[in-house]
C-alpha cells in the first residue's frame, strides 16, 4: 500500500524500542483475546441446550481459579508497567549534547527557530544521527507536536515551555502533525521533518545566511529600549544581565529562582511577578507587544552575554522543568 | 387495557398525556427517559454518519472544516452526556431497581421526575446550541481554546451539560437511598442482584464526581464571560488545571457507562446459561474496586500534556491496577458458561457480543496505560477505536441486550426473535468492521479530529466508513421491530425467560406499585439449574 511503509517504519532512536513493545503487546493481548474467545465459543457449543455433556456438580465458585486469574494478570500488568516506565524514562531524559531548537506553535502553523537564526514554517531540517531538543511554546491554544515516524508526541502549551527530544536515525521526510485539537484548521496544521546527511545539512545550513538568534535578540534589545536600563551605561537602576543565565537570582520576597528561560520570559512579560532583590519594581511589561519568537530571541541574546560562555553555545539554552 | 388474569398495568392506568408528564411511577419515568434518550441516540448517530461520510475520502469534501468540528462536538457531547451516561441507569435502572429489590417505587419519586425534567432541560440547551450554529470545542472543552478562542456557542452547550449533571446527581442519590432502605424482607446485601450492585457503585461515582464537572463548567462560563483568569495563561491561569478537573470527572464517567453494562450482562448470562453466575462475591468486590480505583487514574489522559514524568508513572501504575477487576469479570462470565445449558436468544447474543468487544477494548486500554506506548498512540485513532470498543461495543451492546431482555417485562409484548438475533449479529460485525481498522490507523499515526487527512490513510478510512454504514443499519433495525412489537407483538407471559429475579415474579407489564404483596427473599438472585433445564427441554421434546 502506497505510503504505509514510510509511515510505519520507525526513524528515531526510540522507534524500534516502542515498536518492539507495541508488537509484544499485540502478541500477548492477541493471545489472551484468542484464548478467551475460543473458550467462549467452545463452551457455547459444548454446553448448548440439548447437547450430551456432563452438567453435574455446582460450578459457580472456585477460589483457586479466581485467585489464579486475579494474580496472573496482576503480575503480567506489573511486568508491562515496568517495561513501559523504563522506556518512558528513556523518552523523557534529555541528552546534554542535544542541539537546541525553538518551536512556536500558533493557529495553524509551526514556526521553527534555529540557534543560528534560521527560521522555518511547517518544516524542520535536521542532520541525521544527532540528538535534537525542541523547546516549545504556543502563542494561543494547546497544540501537540507529533512525529509518527519518531513515535513521539508532546503537547505545546501557551505561557509555558515544554520540551521533547529525538535522534533521527534515517534520512528522509517525515510527517509532522498537530495532535491536540486547536480549532478550525487543526487538520491542516501539518508539516514535515527533513532529515539530511550531515554534508547536505551543512550545505542547507550555509545557504540560510541569516543572523544568529542571539544577534537578532541584540537588535531587539536596542529597538525595544531594553538597553536604556539594562545596558552598561544605563543611569536607571536595573540588574546587569551579563552572566545572568542559569545563575540563582535572589528575589525581593526573599526566595531565590534560577534564571532559566521560564524566568526570563516571565521577567519580560510579567516583570512584577518576581522582582530581583534590591531593585525597584519599575520595569514595564512587554505583554501583547512582542510575540513568543521575540522572547526567544531576547533570551538567546541574554544567554550569549555570559562572560565565560560554554564551549558549545548551543548547550543548555533552556531548562524548563519537566 | 387490563389483562384478564392480571391487575391493571402501570401502562394502562391512569390514562392521558398529563398522567405521564406528572407521573411519580419509576417505570413511567424510565419510559420517558427511554424516549428522550433514544431521540438523542439518533441525533448523535446522525452526527456520526456525517463524520464517517466526510472521512470516507482523504479530502475534506462533504463538510467545511468548521462543520466537521461541530459534527464531532455534537456527536461527543450528545453521546456521552445525553446517551451513554444516562442510558442504563436512567432507563433500565429506573424501571428495574425497585422491581429487583421488591420495592414499591424509588425512595424519592418526585425527585425522580425532577431528574427527568432536568435531563430534558439540559437537552433543550444542547439542541438550542445546535440550532444556533453548534460548538466546535469537542466534548472535552479543553481550555484555553474553549474559553478564549472558540467563536462558537460554547456557553449554550456548557449550560446544557451543567444542567444534565444535576439529573445524574439526583438519580444517583435516589438509587443509593433506595438500595439502603427499601430492599424486600430477606434481601440482604449478598442476595442483591449484580445489576443492583452496579447501580449502587455507579451512583456513588455519580454523586462524588459529577459536582467536580459542574464546578469546572461554571469556571468555563466565568472565564468566557468575565475573563477571570483561572485557565487563561495570559492572566496567570493554568490550562492544565482544566484538564485535571475535567478528567477527574470524565474518567470515572467511563465507569458510569461501563459498570451498569456489566450489571446488565451479569443478569442476562446466568439466565440463558441456566446457571448461577460464577464467583458472585468476587463479582461484587470487583464492581466496588472498579468504582473506587477508577477515581485515581484520571492523569492517564495527560501523559504528554506537560504534567511531570513522575505523575505519569503513578497514574500509569494505577491504571494497570484498575484493569485487574475488569479482567476478573471477563473470566467469570466465561466460566459461567462452563457446564451450563445454554440457549442463544437475542439478549444472550448481545451479552456475548459485549464480552468480546469489552475484552478487546480493555486489552487495548493496556497499550494506553503503558506510558511509553501512550506517547505515540494518544490523540490518534487508536484512542478513538479503544474508547468506542468500551463505550459503544461495551455499553451500547449491553444496553441493547438489556432492552431486549426486559422488553417483555416492561411492555408486556414479545418482539420478533429472528429479527432481533439478526440485528445483534449485524451490530457485532458492523461494529468491528468500523473500529478495527482504526487501531491500525492510530498506530500509523493518524491524529484524531482531522476532517481531511494524508492519502495513505485513505484505504483504512474507507473500510471504517463502510462499516459505519452497516452499523447504522443495525441500529435502525431494533427501532423498527421494537416499535412494531408495541402494537402487534404477541402478549408476553409474566416470565418469558423463566428467570429468577424478583422483577419476573410480578405480571408483565407490572401493576403501578409493582407487587400485589411484598415479596420475601430466601435465597441468592440466580437460582438456576442447568440439569433441570435439560430435563425440562427433554420433556418438551
> Number of helical runs of chain A?
8
The structure class of chain A reads: alpha+beta
Low-confidence stretches of chain B: none
Rg of chain A: 27 Å
Largest sheet of chain B: none
Strand order of the largest sheet of chain A: 3-2-1-5-8
Indicate the overall shape of chain B.
Answer: globular
Q: Percent of residues of chain A in helical segments?
A: 25-40%
Count up the helices of chain B: 16
How would you sum up this structure in a few lines?
The complex is a heterodimer of chains A (322) and B (541). Chain A is of the alpha+beta class.
How would you characterize this protein structure?
- The complex is a heterodimer of chains A (322) and B (541).
- Chain A is of the alpha+beta class.
- Among the domains of chain A are: 99-206, Sandwich (Immunoglobulin-like); 213-304, Cytochrome Bc1 Complex, Chain D, domain 2, CATH 1.10.760.10.
- Helix content of chain A is 36%, strand content 20%.
- Chain A is built from 8 helices and 12 strands.
- In chain A, the strands form 3 sheets. A 5-stranded mixed beta sheet of chain A has the order 3-2-1-5-8, covered by helices on one side. A 5-stranded mixed beta sheet of chain A has the order 4-10-9-6-7.
- The longest helix of chain A has 32 residues, at 15-46.
- Chain A starts with a helix and ends in an 18-residue tail after the last helix.
- Chain B has helices at residues 17-21, 26-54, 65-101, 109-131, 145-149, 154-181, 194-226, 239-273, 280-293, 309-337, 346-369, 371-377, 381-411, 417-444, 458-488, 530-540.
- Chain B: This is Cytochrome c oxidase subunit 1.
- Chain B: It holds the Pfam family COX1.
- Chain B: Residues 502-541 are annotated as: Disordered.
Layout of strands and helices, then pairs:
The complex is a heterodimer of chains A (322) and B (541).
Chain A (H helix, E strand, L loop, with lengths): L3 H5 L6 H32 L16 H30 L6 E8 L2 E6 L4 E3 L1 E5 L4 E7 L4 E5 L4 E5 L5 E5 L5 E7 L11 E7 L1 H11 L4 H11 L2 H5 L17 E3 L5 E3 L2 H9 L22 H13 L18
Chain B lengths: L16 H5 L4 H29 L10 H37 L7 H23 L13 H5 L4 H28 L12 H33 L12 H35 L6 H14 L15 H29 L8 H24 L1 H7 L3 H31 L5 H28 L13 H31 L41 H11 L1
Helix pairs in contact in B: 2-3, 2-4, 2-15, 3-6, 3-7, 3-8, 3-13, 4-6, 6-7, 7-8, 7-9, 8-10, 8-11, 8-13, 9-10, 10-11, 11-13, 11-14, 13-14, 14-15
Amino acid at each position: 500500500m502506497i505510503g504505509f511503509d514510510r509511515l510505519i517504519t520507525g526513524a528515531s532512536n526510540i522507534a524500534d524500542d516502542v515498536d518492539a513493545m507495541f508488537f509484544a503487546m499485540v502478541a500477548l493481548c492477541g493471545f489472551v483475546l484468542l484464548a478467551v474467545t475460543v473458550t467462549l465459543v467452545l463452551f457455547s457449543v459444548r454446553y448448548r441446550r440439548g447437547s450430551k455433556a456432563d452438567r453435574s456438580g455446582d460450578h459457580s465458585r472456585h477460589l483457586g481459579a479466581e485467585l489464579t486469574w486475579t494474580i496472573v494478570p496482576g503480575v503480567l500488568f506489573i511486568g508491562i508497567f515496568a517495561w513501559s516506565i523504563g522506556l518512558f524514562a528513556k523518552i523523557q531524559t534529555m541528552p546534554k549534547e542535544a542541539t537546541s531548537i525553538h518551536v512556536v506553535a500558533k493557529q495553524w502553523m509551526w514556526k521553527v527557530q534555529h540557534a543560528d537564526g534560521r527560521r522555518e514554517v511547517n518544516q524542520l531540517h535536521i542532520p541525521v544521527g544527532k540528538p535534537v531538543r525542541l523547546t516549545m511554546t504556543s502563542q494561543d491554544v494547546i497544540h501537540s507536536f507529533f512525529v509518527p515516524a519518531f513515535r513521539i508526541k508532546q503537547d505545546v502549551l501557551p505561557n509555558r515551555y515544554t520540551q521533547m527530544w529525538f535522534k533521527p536515525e534515517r534520512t528522509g521526510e517525515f510527517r509532522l502533525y498537530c495532535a491536540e485539537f486547536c480549532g478550525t484548521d487543526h487538520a491542516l496544521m501539518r508539516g514535515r521533518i527533513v532529515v539530511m546527511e550531515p554534508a547536505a545539512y551543512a550545505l542547507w545550513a550555509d545557504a540560510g545566511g541569516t543572523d544568529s538568534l542571539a544577534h537578532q535578540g541584540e537588535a531587539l534589545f536596542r529597538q525595544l529600549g531594553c538597553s536604556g536600563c539594562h545596558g552598561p551605561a544605563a543611569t536607571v537602576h536595573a540588574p546587569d544581565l551579563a552572566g545572568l543565565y542559569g545563575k540563582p537570582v535572589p528575589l525581593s520576597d526573599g526566595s531565590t529562582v534560577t534564571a532559566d528561560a521560564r524566568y526570563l520570559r516571565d521577567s519580560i512579560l510579567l516583570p512584577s511577578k518576581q522582582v530581583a532583590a534590591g531593585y525597584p519594581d519599575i520595569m514595564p511589561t512587554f505583554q501583547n507587544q512582542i510575540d513568543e519568537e521575540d522572547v526567544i530571541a531576547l533570551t538567546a541574546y541574554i544567554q550569549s552575554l555570559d562572560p565565560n560562555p560554554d564551549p558549545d553555545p548551543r548547550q543548555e539554552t533552556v531548562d524548563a522543568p519537566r | 387495557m387490563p389483562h384478564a388474569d392480571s391487575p391493571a398495568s402501570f401502562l394502562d392506568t391512569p390514562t392521558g398525556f398529563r398522567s405521564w408528564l406528572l407521573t411519580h411511577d419509576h417505570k413511567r419515568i424510565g419510559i420517558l427517559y427511554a424516549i428522550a434518550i433514544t431521540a438523542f441516540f439518533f441525533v448523535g448517530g446522525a452526527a456520526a454518519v456525517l463524520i464517517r461520510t466526510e472521512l470516507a475520502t482523504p479530502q475534506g469534501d462533504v463538510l467545511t472544516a468548521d462543520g466537521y468540528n461541530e459534527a464531532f462536538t455534537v456527536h461527543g457531547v450528545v453521546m456521552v452526556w445525553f446517551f451513554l451516561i444516562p442510558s442504563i441507569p436512567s432507563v433500565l435502572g429506573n424501571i428495574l431497581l425497585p422491581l429487583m429489590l421488591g420495592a414499591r417505587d424509588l425512595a424519592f419519586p418526585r425527585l425522580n421526575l425532577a431528574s427527568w425534567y432536568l435531563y430534558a432541560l439540559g437537552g433543550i440547551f444542547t439542541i438550542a446550541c445546535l440550532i444556533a450554529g453548534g460548538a466546535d470545542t469537542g466534548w472535552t472543552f479543553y481550555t484555553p481554546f474553549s474559553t478564549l478562542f472558540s467563536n462558537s456557542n460554547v456557553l449554550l452547550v456548557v449550560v446544557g451539560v451543567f444542567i444534565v449533571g444535576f439529573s445524574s446527581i439526583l438519580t444517583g442519590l435516589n438509587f443509593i437511598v433506595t438500595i439502603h432502605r427499601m430492599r424486600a424482607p430477606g434481601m440482604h446485601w449478598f442476595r442483591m442482584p449484580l445489576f443492583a450492585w452496579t447501580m449502587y457503585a455507579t451512583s456513588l461515582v455519580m454523586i462524588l464526581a459529577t459536582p467536580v464537572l459542574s464546578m469546572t463548567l461554571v469556571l468555563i462560563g466565568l472565564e468566557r464571560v468575565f475573563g477571570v483568569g483561572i485557565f487563561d495563561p495570559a492572566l496567570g491561569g493554568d490550562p492544565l488545571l482544566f484538564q485535571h478537573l475535567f478528567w477527574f470527572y470524565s474518567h470515572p464517567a467511563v465507569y458510569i457507562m461501563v459498570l451498569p453494562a456489566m450489571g446488565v450482562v451479569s443478569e442476562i448470562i446466568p439466565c440463558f446459561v441456566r446457571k448461577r453466575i460464577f464467583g458472585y462475591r468476587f463479582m461484587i468486590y470487583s464492581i466496588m474496586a472498579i468504582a473506587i480505583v477508577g477515581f485515581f487514574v484520571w492523569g492517564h489522559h495527560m501523559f504528554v500534556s506537560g504534567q511531570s514524568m513522575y505523575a505519569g508513572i503513578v497514574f500509569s501504575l494505577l491504571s494497570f491496577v484498575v484493569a485487574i477487576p475488569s479482567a476478573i469479570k471477563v473470566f467469570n462470565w466465561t466460566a459461567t458458561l462452563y457446564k451450563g445449558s445454554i440457549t442463544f436468544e437475542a439478549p444472550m447474543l448481545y451479552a456475548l457480543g459485549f464480552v468480546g468487544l469489552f475484552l478487546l477494548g480493555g486489552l487495548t486500554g493496556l497499550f494506553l496505560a503503558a506510558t511509553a506506548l501512550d506517547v505515540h498512540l494518544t490523540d490518534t485513532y487508536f484512542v478513538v477505536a479503544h474508547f468506542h470498543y468500551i463505550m459503544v461495543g461495551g455499553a451500547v451492546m449491553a444496553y441493547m441486550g438489556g432492552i431486549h431482555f426486559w422488553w417483555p417485562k416492561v411492555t408486556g409484548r414479545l418482539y420478533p426473535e429472528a429479527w432481533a438475533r439478526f440485528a445483534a449479529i449485524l451490530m457485532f460485525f458492523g461494529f468491528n468492521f468500523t473500529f478495527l481498522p482504526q487501531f491500525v490507523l492510530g498506530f500509523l499515526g493518524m491524529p484524531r479530529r482531522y476532517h481531511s487527512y494524508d492519502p495513505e490513510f485513505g484505504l483504512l478510512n474507507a473500510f471504517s466508513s463502510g462499516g459505519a454504514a452497516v452499523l447504522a443499519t443495525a441500529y435502525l433495525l431494533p427501532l423498527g421491530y421494537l416499535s412494531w412489537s408495541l402494537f402487534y407483538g404477541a402478549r408476553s407471559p409474566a416470565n418469558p425467560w423463566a428467570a429468577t429475579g424478583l422483577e419476573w415474579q410480578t405480571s408483565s407489564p407490572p401493576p403501578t406499585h409493582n407487587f400485589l404483596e411484598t415479596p420475601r427473599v430466601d435465597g441468592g438472585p440466580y437460582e438456576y439449574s442447568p440439569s433441570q433445564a435439560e430435563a425440562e427441554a427433554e420433556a418438551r421434546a
